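re: ur question from the group chat, yeah i did fold both. here u go
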Amino acid sequence: MDQDFYFHFIEPDIAIADFVENLGTFRNRSDEAKEVVIIPDGRIDLFFMYSPSEPFHVSLIGLETYPEQRQILPQTIAFVVSFKPIAVEYILKSSIADLLNTGKDLPIGFWDFNVDDLQDFELCCKKATQKIIELLPKETDKRKHKLFELIYLSKGEMSVKELSEKAGWSSRQINRYFTKQLGLSLKAYSTILRFRASLEHIAQGRLFPELNYTDQNHFIKEVKKFSGVAPKELSQNKNDRFVLLSVLKGK
């Protein structure tokens, strides 16, 4: 375990749980950059970050569809809100289709956060929760609510046809919505969620498909596509490079 790299994630208050998956913080206490691999997880991340070499800034990161190596600068401290996709329309109120595999900086002062807040994780959680509660819609489209509930519960294993039937929303309209709001199709998103569900098994050393993959080769191919390495190497997670896997192992 990398002693210089600290992270902590919690589930959100029930009042915002339909829109937020978790709230978290991480720090690179080292005087050297931390090499990490960001892998697709189906979440949209809002980061509040600071390091001595990079002033306080706020960034919104869209969905990822492939692994990417990044550096966390020395002495970085960050607070992150990880949104579920339905939050794009109802909380962020802006499409993130153009942020696929990338991100954008938001104005300093966004949600009234400042650099001093980052020292107090509990305060950050309270501020973010209160702000999201203020932004909660009076009502949501029941079809969309049902759709995302089913996608999450099925861990991406339910077919587009079945999701469409159970949500009472045509597959054509669903895919148009996904493409416009998120920048990818429902099927592509479901595949990412299935991969993420597999990470929980891989984190425990279970290196064989337990979801609806065709066979072992299909499983290995998909793990390589989204993480860049085979399941065995991913499970070993040398130097805690795969932060998401480290979080799952720590559960």
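okk and heres the other one u asked abt
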Amino acid sequence: MDDERTILRSELRERRRRLGAGERMAAAEGLVRTLENLPEFLTDPRIAGYWAIDGELPLHHVVNALRARGQQFFLPCISAPRQLRFAAWRPGIALEPNRYGIPEPSGADVEIVDGGTLDVVLVPLLGFDRHGGRLGYGGGYYDATFAALRERSEVTSPVLVGIGYAAQELERFEPTDWDVRLDYVATERELIDCWSREREPAAGSGA
């Protein structure tokens, strides 16, 4: 399975790199409209995201929308092996690259919180399916940080929302035992409710 996922990650990175600058800009604008279909995104105070690298869908329009409503935006920080904490960030707060070269908020006065205190987490990915399956980068940071959500059977807090281009969708792939399922996926085109199939009545139930 590791070899298959490595090959798939390479294919999905290349798929994402083929998107043109105009497509990326339009997708960043479309993502905000998609997320506005999620009530928690419009009302809840603590929203975490990511600093886009390597062609990830940018969140600058998301940050602007949150600031306009007075909501806080948080960025992930590596706190231990395969563990993340989240630091409040707004334009003007200093950033320093972590061991992977990804910017993290820095400074003694930066507010840092545990993942469980967040309301919504916008999760980066390489691939996704409509059942909440997420193909990440192989480090396992999000799966380990939110391991307490692994056994849930409905949406709980924090709400996990995968963020990706529509072109990153996969038909279906098998999760591992340690994968944490997404509650929603937001692309530039739509908000996908990953629990919707579980809510549908069984055929012949009369519901």
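fwiw on the second one: The helical segments are 2-17, 21-35, 39-43, 60-68, 141-145, 196-199. The chain has a mean pLDDT of 93. idk if thats what u expected
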